From TrEMBL, chain A:
Protein name according to UniProt: Ribosomal RNA-processing protein 4
Gene Ontology, cellular component aspect: cytoplasmic exosome (RNase complex); nuclear exosome (RNase complex)
Keyword RNA-binding attached: yes
Domain RRP4 S1 positions: 90-161
Domain Exosome complex component N-terminal: start-end pairs: 51-78
Broad class of the protein's primary localization: nucleus
GO process annotations (BP): CUT catabolic process; exonucleolytic trimming to generate mature 3'-end of 5.8S rRNA from tricistronic rRNA transcript (SSU-rRNA, 5.8S rRNA, LSU-rRNA); nuclear polyadenylation-dependent rRNA catabolic process; poly(A)-dependent snoRNA 3'-end processing; TRAMP-dependent tRNA surveillance pathway; U4 snRNA 3'-end processing
Automatic annotation (TrEMBL), chain B:
Family: Belongs to the RNase PH family.
Domain Exoribonuclease phosphorolytic: 18-148, 151-215
Principal cellular location given in the protein's record: cytoplasm
Lineage, opening ranks: Eukaryota, Viridiplantae, Streptophyta, Embryophyta, Marchantiophyta
Compartment list: Cytoplasm; Nucleus, Nucleolus
Native source organism of the sequence: Marchantia polymorpha (Common liverwort)
Gene Ontology molecular-function annotations: RNA binding
Biological process, per Gene Ontology: nuclear mRNA surveillance; poly(A)-dependent snoRNA 3'-end processing; rRNA catabolic process; U4 snRNA 3'-end processing
The protein, known as: Uncharacterized protein
One Pfam family here: RNase_PH_C
Domain of life: Eukaryota
Gene Ontology CC: cytoplasmic exosome (RNase complex); nuclear exosome (RNase complex); nucleolus
From TrEMBL, chain C:
Keyword Cytoplasm recorded: yes
Organism: Marchantia polymorpha (Common liverwort)
Protein name: Ribosomal RNA-processing protein 42
UniProt GO cellular component terms: cytoplasmic exosome (RNase complex); nuclear exosome (RNase complex); nucleolus
Entries under Pfam families matching the protein: RNase_PH (PF01138), RNase_PH_C (PF03725)
Family listed: Belongs to the RNase PH family.
Domain Exoribonuclease phosphorolytic positions: 33-172, 203-267
A single BP term in Gene Ontology: U1 snRNA 3'-end processing
Primary site of residence: cytoplasm
Amino acid sequence: MGDAMRGAHFRLSPAQKQRMLVAQERCRDAAGSVHSSAFVNVGDTIPVDYENGYLRGHGTQVVDGQLLATVCGVVERVNKLVSVRPLRARYNPETGDVVVGRVTEVAPKRWKVDVNSRQDAQLMLSAVNLPGGIQRRRTATDELNMRDLFTENDLISAEVQTLHQDGSLHLHTRSLKYGKLESGQLVKVAPYLIKRLKQHFHQLKQYGVQMILGCNGYVWISALPQSTPDIATDQKRANTESLEAAAGTADSQNVEISRELRERICRLANVVRVLGACGFLIHPDSIVDTYEASLSWGTELKHMFSGEFFVKVVEREAEQRSKKG
Amino acid sequence: MDFISPEGLRLDGRRPFELRQLHAEIGVLDNADGSATFEMGNTKVIAVVYGPREVQNRSQQQLDHALVRCEYSMATFSTGDRRRRGKGDRRGTELSLVIRQTMEAAILTNLLPRSQIDIFVQVLQADGGTRACCINAAALALADAGIPMRDLVASCSAGYLNSTPLLDLNYLEDSGGGPDLTVALFSKLDKVTLLQMDAKVPLDVFEKVMNLASEGAKAVTQFLREILMENTKKLAFAKEPLKV
Amino acid sequence: MVVGLGLSSAEKSYIAGGIAVDLRGDGRGRHHFRDFSIDTSIIPQANGSARLRLGGTDVIASVKAELCAPPPGRPHHGKLEINVECSPTAAPEFEGRGGEELSMDLSRALQRSFLGGASGAGAAIDLASLVVLEGKLCWMLYFDGLVLSSDGNLLDALSIAMKAALSNCGLPKVEITSGTNPEDDADFELNEEEFTPVDTSRFPVIVTLTKVGKHYIVDATAEEESQMTAAVSVAVNKKGSICGLTKRGGTGLDPSVLLDMISVAKRVSQTLITSIDAEISAAESRHDDQ
């Protein structure tokens, strides 16, 4: 079959193949954090200290007194909590996560949002900002005009508010940085490649671009919003009648994207796609570094899915890892 | 017809207890949550998993466990004589049901309430043992999708011709008029999750064939585990380098 | 031709805006084809087969040859049949009969481009080359396509895959043992050791031009296709002759626009055919090495 990495298919010449193999080996061997004995298959027994007791976490089950893995992945031990973390899987939400999602349904008093998880998330009407002040009771007009705020297929950024026992999750957009997304493009990567960091909104002023790395694997790359939200503008917006203003879209909707800006957004998006296909962690630093590297190599946008570019990216990562170790 | 030569070799040169060559690949279709191909000799199957995800048809939603759906399809070019198969032919429907039940028994559906898991199995080339091949491919695809299972399922077929139990029948042997038995096992739990056989056989023959198929399934389990472990390591090392 | 793809109005205008300035979402220009890879002999049971990957689009094509009687009224011709199926693996919406409409659309479009007219003229293969014994025995080639995954441009992908499958195809030598008299049925034997390849030089490639706003693009992704107002698929062969034409989509096209789209398709097809032939040879030599 083709020389494939997930999400990319390209041909490598024998010389390129050799370079790729060497680079992948180097990536693997650089000193780091994963111990090889920590891998398990479905059904494998997980060694635990039965005497001192343990807490059973995700990805495990007890059968005949033995702790077994229920997924293929890496064993994690935090104090007495033993769990198995699968690598590829649907997004596993945690409270406080920043996510990018797509509205799938407008229902009475709430929206349903696809966040690449086991179920669609719920965004209650009471959990969004409304005009006329942040705290006010929702009126019947609000309920009727929900589509003025978010309609089907809209992309939004939001935060995970609560998780319930039955697996349902609730979002909120109670900060002006959240809301409808415009002037950009969406890239999807596997959720396990997005590390939970302090910041998920990255303003790359040097490029005039904003990146939102959703914990759910949905990455939004767009033009910088016209104005960064602050208290004064909050109040001004809050006092207007228009729901659109409250959604934070009025400004960015009219952003004319210049060709140069479009090229930068595209280059960043392609970098994210390539890093995702290589299975490398999608970190703002690695995205920017790879972006800059692609410029220094003179890689044209349309050649970023060629075998040569992939080989260079993996070689570069190997180099970075060797340095750190 | 002689299915076993005087030297004890089958039509394709194998010994009676020999499995055909196994080949598998994980992550073959990017759109899906999980995917895998599985080959047993010339039988080639691709399995794909979508989910767990929001239930599409609200009326089918189960409050306390996941909804598992499965469809089995055979490509027009998959059999020796090319045949257009209408969707919903009896064999296809039966196989869809059998595969679904087998995989459903493996999936810890109570951990995924109100969700839906779609398993699609597409036969690319059929040369006997299709049922078993489909189950093996589906097991890999489910693992690829990170769906929690109580155990790995592995499957194998066996038959009885010229008074000899034969492991992993190919198409010619399957059409030989003897019994065709497929077994699927939970390897760790050591439990049979699927057992199907056609044709009439005396009990002692049945036992021999059943045991042979089980041995075959155990060998397949070993192969599945190797493939999965290699895949897990590859992904983990790519994401983060190995600590010695 | 797109399933379950919802885009926000912001995304739609971003896509259209990019196309307008010749810079698509993945960095391609309007007339740029994605890189593709071909593998041959993937279905050993068939006479010829190939798998084509074009971005996220993944299709398999196979050619099976059967001996039969020539078509009525044309004793000097062989026969072709073309059929496409969409596997549920490509999208859950293709489950059951969900993929039927798309399958039929694709089949008909390919038939229109490859089968030629009622007289058999203009077919993708010289039908006369498929005759074994005039009036009695000819080859029937079944082209079967299977869509495993779709990220747009299925028609073009299938046409390329089918050409590759045909290049990979060998027809067993037929030895007539008796029955050369006009009244007798022919008896024959197949020599499974000797194979003759089929001439693919006339086989066209289909280039689909998708119109989004005022501009048209080549090799649209699923997202781009969802924004199409109209699409024109042109089958062009190595010589640059047009072998078939299909227009889809509700929006009417100005005749001058249509002519321009056809000329773009012609131009793109010539470089495309060269790449395809190169990829096919590479695939075959890779297979021979194994």
